[in-house]
Amino acid sequence: MVFQRIFGWFSKRSRQRRAATLASFIKPEPDWRILDLGGGTGEHIHRVFPNCRNITVCDYSAADLAIARDRFGYTTIQADGSDRLPFADGEFDLVFCSSVIEHVTGPKDSIIKMTNGREFQDTAFHFQQKFASEIRRVGKRYYVQTPHRYFIIESHTWLPIVIVLLPRPLQIRTIAFFNRFWPKQTEPDWNLLVPSQMKHLFPDAKLILERSGWMPKSIMAIRS
């Protein structure tokens, strides 16, 4: 569809810009141990670091991890949903985490049904704090990127910014309605962040705003 082609092109261009920003702060050696959290098939990390081979991809999807192993030869670990990552302190030279932390909000079966907005925000941020702490623990350096809460188009729904401003019960119903026919479908498990929250999660990082026009599109936390 036209929507999918447009957003696909826009997303690809944004990822290229972010990769260039990351490269200006961190230039990994070929033998660095790199952890890609939520890396799926490994295609994204391969585009960002094509010359690095000592990469571990950690993800929930067994099918995606099989592609990461077979296509790129990466080491893979299937996430088990526990609060602690199965790695030693400082095990990796770099942790790479792109558009993942907004989804680390707690058990999916309960979080997507949670209709109390304050309870959802508190629960989600609690799990995001634990995840951020683990990133800082296992990585000597890290790069964490997440969509900005107030970008004009919400990236998980492709709906206007108003979707993030709706009361939680109405937001859930609106997403369910658009899931019937809209080209971009999602479950309401994501908790989008703003720079002050990212600074709280990653106090030792440099925060960079990616902008599209005059609007902040995403937030990058980089510890180099």
Task: Report on the architecture of this protein.
With 224 residues, the chain is an alpha/beta fold. It has helices spanning 2-25, 43-48, 62-72, 108-111, 117-138, 162-165, 168-178, 195-201; strands at 34-37, 55-59, 75-78, 94-98, 142-147, 153-154, 159-160, 206-212, 215-223. 40% of the residues lie in helices and 20% in strands. A hairpin with a 4-residue loop joins strand 6 (153-154) and strand 7 (159-160). The mean pLDDT is 94.
Observed structural traits:
9 strands, 20% strand, two-stranded antiparallel sheet
User: Distance N terminus to C terminus?
Assistant: 40 Å
Structural class: alpha/beta
Helical residue percent band: 25-40%
The percentage of residues in β strands lies in 15-25%
SSE topology string? HEHEHEEHHEEEHHHEE
Roughly what is the average pLDDT, rounded to an integer? 94
Overall geometric form: globular
Largest sheet: 7 strands, mixed
Strand segment count: 9
Radius of gyration: 17 Å
Low-pLDDT regions: none
Q: Give the count of helical stretches.
A: 8
Q: What oligomeric arrangement do these chains adopt?
A: single chain
Q: What is the strand arrangement across the widest sheet?
A: 3-2-1-4-5-9-8
How do you describe this structure in short?
With 224 residues, the protein is α/β, with parallel strands linked by helices.
